[in-house]
Amino acid sequence: MLAQEIIRRKRDGHALTEAEIAEFVSGLVSGIWSEGQSAAMAMAMLLKGMSDEETVALTLAMTRSGAVMDWSSADLTGPVLDKHSSGGVGDKVSLMLAPIVAACGGVVPMLSGRGLGHTGGTLDKLESIPGYQITPDQTQLRHALRAAGCAIVGPSSALAPADRRLYAIRDVTATVESIALITASILSKKLAAGLQGLVMDVKTGNGAFAASLSEAHTLAQSLVRVANGAGLPTRAWITDMNQVLGDNCGNALEVIEAVAFLKGERQESRLLEVTRTLSAELLQLGGLAADMTQGLQMVDAALASGQALDRFARMVHALGGPADFCERPNAYLAHAPVQRGVFATRAGWVSAMATRDIGLQIIAMGGGRHLASDAVDAPVGFSHMVGLGQRVERGQLLAWVHAADESAADAAQRQLPVFIEIDEVQRTTAPALMIERLAERDI
To 10 degrees, what angle do helices 35-48 and 18-30 make? Predict the structure, then answer.
């Protein structure tokens, strides 16, 4: 089939056949399709849209474009499960969810990514731990899964190579927003990981890529329909991202918060709610819990008993980190040389937070990337963040700045009060965190 004829059919609004989609994906991997042809196809897919059937075919073709992980000979003891988030500021849920689910009998080979735009990346967080290997070989990965029941790592270059080329093309051709291409990009890697169940956290609000609820709903529906259509049992939750999730944002600071959470020392209420809910959903999907009530009870028991903390510690050690990391995380994680408080200039209720701008401020401080080649300064960020609806008095702490130098600290101290609005008159209520649940039978 000629590439230009397949492009023409989609350009003219026709549904593509499985064979035509397979030809496109094969051309991406082999290089037979030129950059111009691949870009034209991506634009046609964006403008004309893709049906669920087309998106399933695209997802499966991209999955099969490289290696597909097979766990049948790995001597694993439970269902293979995973969770994916569309990204937010302070979102460290994966760091707790993976060991919680492992402690409850699941196996979690979680393929995560680096920071994207204003959102933090799970791999960047874990790389703040000395020795932690985010790209283990198959032997080390299987050892970690047997030892800990979970391994949070980066995807192998052998998985879904078609997605890597198509993503690079989308990034420079203003086609990133295509729901079908977002869906296929996420799910092709998850299917290649050999999963038996997946829960999606689709965030919405001013700190999310899907700023409006309608955008988030459309994406969540697509993910659930296509994943289940491709044979991967999947549910999704739409969750609020109009404020930083948890107390801390910044790579090493989020690891510190995750360890404290697993120890039961400090579990910020919204972070606890989303972590418990998504973990319980996975336990249901994997057949480990009969319903949400039992799933939540299992999650609470894994946290209270210390089993989830133990699984996290085992994972860190199996992937090259210190054996006693969870006992003394502050001894291993780097600390920012300049730390300062930001204080309220008036009394009132925290009424709004420019969450995306806070994420961008962390990047400006060196905690994220402008270019893919940029190094990340793991210790920088904000801790002890206030939350929406919280009452503050004049002079009360809004957040603690962790910066690499005095100049960066000065800038953060100036900017953060601009990003946190305080209403002196009207009491504000924090928005609901868990907004909507989507399962296959619901859509």
Answer: 140
Is 189 a known active-site residue? yes
CATH topology of domain 335-423: Aldehyde Oxidoreductase; domain 3 (3.90.1170)
Cα 289 to Cα 284: distance, rounded to the nearest angstrom: 5
CA atoms within 13 A on the CB side of 287: 5
Residue 291 is among the residues annotated as catalytic for this protein:
no
Domain parsing of the chain, residue ranges: 3-63, 81-329+436-442, 335-423
Say if CB 55 and CB 183 are below 8 A apart: yes
| Token digits of residue 350 | 């925290």
pLDDT number for residue 93: 97
pLDDT score at 174: 84
The CATH architecture assigned to 81-329+436-442 reads 3-Layer(aba) Sandwich (3.40)
- The active-site residue out of 164, 190, 203, 217 is 190
pLDDT of amino acid 428: 85
d(CA 227, CA 189): 11
pLDDT digits (tens, 9 = 90+) for 66-87: 999 999 888 898 999 999 998 8
The pLDDT of residue 51 is 96
Which parts of 116-250 fold into alpha helices (H)?
122-126, 138-148, 161-171, 179-192, 213-229
84 is annotated as an active-site residue: yes
SS3 210: strand
Cα–Cα distance, 90 to 128 (Å, whole number): 15
CATH number for domain 3-63, candidates 1.20.970.10, 3.20.20.70, 3.30.470.10, 1.10.260.40: 1.20.970.10
CA distances from 267 to 27, 174, 207, 276, 440 (A): 49, 39, 21, 11, 31
Q: Which of 10, 83, 317, 356 does the annotation list as catalytic? A: 83
Weakly modelled stretches of the chain, pLDDT under 70: 114-117, 119, 370-373, 441-443
Catalytic residue flag (residue 170): yes
